[in-house]
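note to self — DONT lose this again. spent like an hour looking for the file last time. sequence + predicted structure for the chain T wanted, 463 res
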Amino acid sequence: MNVYSDCLTWPKYRFDHHRKQFQITALTKGTEEEEETEGQENKKKSNIGFGNGQERIEMWKERFEVALYKAKKHPFFQQSISNSKEKRELTPIDALLGSPGSKFILGMLFQLKESKFYLEDLKGNVALDLSKADYTPGFFTEGSIVLLEGNYLDSEAVFQVKTMSLALGEARKSSKTFLGSLDLFATPQLKQGNSKYSLFQTQEERELDLQIPPDSEILFLSEIHLDSPQVLQLLFTLLSIPDDEEPYSAVVLMGNFTSNHKGFAENIQDLQLGLEKLGELIASIPRLSKTHFIIIPGPNDPGGSVSNVWPLPPLPKAFTKNLRAKVPNLHLASNPCRMRFYGKDILIYREDLSGKLRRHCIVPPRDGQDCTETSHHLVKTICDGGHLCPLPLQNRPTHWNLDHCLQIFPLPDVLVLADKQQFSHPYNGCSSMSPGSFSLDGSCISYSPSTSSVDHFRVRLDQ
């Protein structure tokens, strides 16, 4: 099992529309200081920071370019219109003037003036008339990339929208077929030779990845308040596995790790004490000696509660000294976190997403076929949009130079969106799930990589 716990090492890529291929641009932020000659070892640096103005521009361009690539490849634009040999086409915004008839445009939704929405692509922007628009399922927020169908009114310089839908998604199988052996998920490994980084999986590695142990199981828990004795007792009950059962291959523990009812200083003390108790609890169960434990901070834990800028760094090592001493297979991960278990790509993100998206969407989500619950809208929004947090920067600040850590392409095998509600929905070849709040009602989720099955359960609080 590989845990890519530090998002600073994840590959940064962009789609080259001229060469029709994805290219790795950097491992971390793209500054001149990181440019190295072939064969030199990449020095890991602390790159938490907003970056420069150019990187903010590149952030939006990279999001749009991937969405444009997926839209052009989608069957909606590849298949001929019924009773005709013509195909639907995307029209750049700067080509709308003097172009009659129904058009499809793709771009980022934003509000240039109060209560006046615009759509922007790489060539320009256009005002929108949404008074007669129909909406497909999903959350439509400022900053999200959407596909519009409608007519451009030359006299009013307005695009009258008939239908607004999310950016077209792509199934994991289609993406992997296009990429071949190019690996955009894992941290590239340094190697000797003509290529600076090993970005491709060999045939031997792919065959080894398919040999998943049949009894392997990964446990996901979120919102674990370690300052609560009741929660610690509940966690001990859950991890105390009978002798006739195999121990978990991995346990993913996600914050918030304190109840956050006190001041900042008191919460820090409670967190340090809680992590120490967690180490003692795990060490008291010898059968967990080979289990991997992945610790992912929540939005109110140190790092998130101070800066509130994503992605979040791992918990400070000063707080986890005793925990690291007692748990041998411990991984202090960033938020989001990536891991690969025998070829299964798993992306984990801890955030109360559904509530934030619901508060900031421009219209209430519209139900559709197989999309009737809030969790359905959430999964569709994230997977089709290809980004873990499609909100404007004023509502969800992001490190401009690390925005690629929040992008999703291709879809992973497993996407854990640790929200307050518990759910699991397959979508476009990706198993999307949320374990719910462990401190609230003892809810959690176990995932079997060999069968791709998901088991929801709740541990009784009175045990």
